[in-house]
Amino acid sequence: MNGGMAMDGAVARASRGAMAYHGGLAAEGAVERHYARAGHAITARRWRGSGGEIDLIARDSAGLVFVEVKKSRTFARAAERVTARQMARIYASASEFLAGEPDGQDSALRFDVALVDQAGRIEIIENAFGH
Predict the structure, then answer these.
(1) Residues paired with residue 112 on neighbouring β-strands, in sequence order
(2) Would you say the pTM of this structure is higher than 0.85?
(3) pLDDT by residue (tens digit) across 2-57?
(4) What residues contact 87, with CB distance under 8 A and at least 6 apart?
(5) Could you give the 3-state DSSP secondary structure of residue 114?
(6) What is the mean pLDDT of residues 127-131?
(7) Distance between CA atoms of 98 and 42, rounded to whole angstroms?
(8) Given phi > 0 = left and psi -120 to 50 = alpha, else beta, which region is 70?
(9) What CA–CA distance (Å, rounded) separates 107 from 61?
(10) 23 CB neighbour count, 10 Å cutoff
């Protein structure tokens, strides 16, 4: 009997995980469309460096934009999910990405956080990491 209840819990967790994963993909897609409509060329999606994954990399006339997408019930809850450790990993991966750019580490860039709430609204915090 306990084995069945444990299995039900595992199935429920897996289901929630799958929903979160697909919700995250949908949020990233919406944010990508938002940046594209604003005139940004999308350079990379889910770019993975040794430090971790960068959700979206866009380019505009001012330079590169590294975007971290956070989805939650509210904008405030989404913003709370950006940690210092995560920012450090994103910096490390961005540095790796810049190695392939013509201006390297001297490239013009910023780090944005795109918050997506449960209604699908998007709030962009430009230069969120204070770079």
Answers:
(1) 67
(2) no
(3) 555 555 666 555 555 555 655 678 899 999 999 999 999 999 999 999 989 999 99
(4) 111, 129
(5) strand
(6) 79
(7) 15
(8) beta
(9) 12
(10) 15
**What pLDDT digit, counting tens, does each position of 75-113 carry?**
999 999 999 999 999 999 999 999 999 999 999 999 999
Domains of the chain and CATH, by start? 2-125 (3.40.1350.10)
In the structure encoding, which two tokens stand for residue 34, read together? 């938002």
Sign, CA torsion 44/53/85/74: positive
Q: Where are the beta strands (DSSP E) in the chain?
A: 41-49, 52-60, 63-71, 109-116, 122-125
Residue 96: which of 45, 40, 51, 41 has the closest Cα?
A: 51
C-alpha span between 51 and 8 (Å, rounded): 35
Dump pLDDT digits (tens) for 56-77. Answer: 999 999 999 999 999 999 999 9
Q: Give CA torsion, residues 35, 40, 61, 112, to 10 deg.
A: 40
DSSP state, residue 104: G
Would you state the structure tokens that stand for residue 89, as one six-digit string? 């990993």
- Give 109's strand partners: 64
